[in-house]
Model the fold of this input.
Amino acid sequence: MKVPAPDNRYLADHAAVLLASYARLTGRELVPAGDALARARALYEAPFVVVSHDTAPDPVFSYANLAAQRLFGMGWDEFVTLPSRCSAEPVERAEREVLLRRVAEQGYIDDYAGVRIAKDSRRFRIEAAVVWNLTGPDGRPAGQAATFAQWKYL
Done:
């Protein structure tokens, strides 16, 4: 599994957007306070999953921490070229679209559960996921992100 360097500028900048958007919307912190690079590293190496996708009409993953890469069975380079809809089986995609619309309208939700699929076709159910809108430093929409620490293989 190819892993980008934790001090990669993209990772640090994107982690800052993920963390700031999460804190602003939920009033909580995903990782402890610290300098930007330490927080980016903590997020990337966290024991819980964090993923995000961009704002394209067919959104593509833009971030996957190590826990996400391990769970989905993909390295960084493969993960960040995957349309996010492909993380769900076709039958689950309509439910996923409803979820994303709900997040777009409300800013975030903290009660999502659903079935996802790994690269090796292994299915798992995620529980108690937080999904939130990302806003860049310029105030523009920057995609959506999700985090969860609970999953069960099916």
